[in-house]
Amino acid sequence: MSSNKRAIVIKGDGTGPELVAAMTNVLKTCNSGIELIAVDAGSEFWEKHGGNSYITEEVWKMLENSDACFKGPTTTIPNPNAPRSVAVSIRQRFQLHSNIRPIKTYKNSKVNLNFVCVREATEGLYTGIEFKINDDAALAIRKITRLGCERVIKTGFRLAKEKSFNKIFAITKRNILKETDGIFMSVVDKIKKEYPSIDVEEYYIDNVTQQLVKNPERFNNSILLSTNLFMDIISECASGHVGSIGNVYSGNYGDNYAMFEPAHGSAPKYAGQDKVNPVATILSGAWMVDYLGEKDISKAIFEATENVIDENKYVTYDLGGNASLSKMANEIASRAGLLLRK
Length: 342
Hints:
The chain is an alpha/beta fold. It has two domains: about 1-95 and about 250-340, Isopropylmalate Dehydrogenase (3-Layer(aba) Sandwich); about 110-240, Isopropylmalate Dehydrogenase (3-Layer(aba) Sandwich), CATH 3.40.718.10. The protein is about 40% helix and about 20% strand. The strands form two sheets. The chain has a ten-stranded mixed beta sheet with strand order 2-1-3-12-11-4-5-10-8-9, sandwiched between helices. Strand 11 (about 250-255) and strand 12 (about 260) form a beta hairpin. The protein is globular.
């Protein structure tokens, strides 16, 4: 199988390289024709080579000449002198305005969930505008623009229509953040007029968090839509219901480019132990090849992964099993390959 598509694959830090290796092995087993080009970026590379970015100019040029990219888990050092995170840097450089994280449970879950978190991914508090007033005080600026809101809100409504969802929960704290969340909700109200069959309900973020713990099924068959930090928190909270954050995959979409990544971090304490859950990385890779046109391969990987998790025989420790990272990934690869040969 051949393809003229090219994807840059950032190996990442901590457990990133072994997870990315497992994902690429699944794609190769499925005979993906997409050219995968592995590169280094992140804190481990930066600590060895220095510079003002986790991403070198050479890698930036490679990204600019690719059709999509995959970001393995990377570490972001919580130090004012450290560079901006790999994910935020790529989202802002390529204007990947819509981060999408599906929340869907498996057969053995205690609850039955199916909804999608849609997050604005280029502005808000993640613009990184902050400064010290003095040694005892600092300010961070929450930048919300009408353009940024329009792009992600249009994504949310389009996705709701595509999935036949008739409800969008717009998540704000507008009683406190009257100006910034006021812009967000004014755009929601404007775009809703184009989708009369979709109901919109505004929820404050503190209430949504409570409801996700108390009664998450109320959000089924809906889109949860919000600004950058709020939806980062909400999607992580929702992830707690799908067995493990290790199951949660995501895509970051712009108008002409996309980046795919597992929703979890690099877990450096488990690096090299062949231990952590590969599902989020594998499914993010499957989503990437879907974006690049290999829809049959993507479908087979998703089906194989669901079968492995539902069977509960070859799963990692966080899902209650004792399989290694490689064992679970190889099982998914084998089953996906068989599905494609049927």
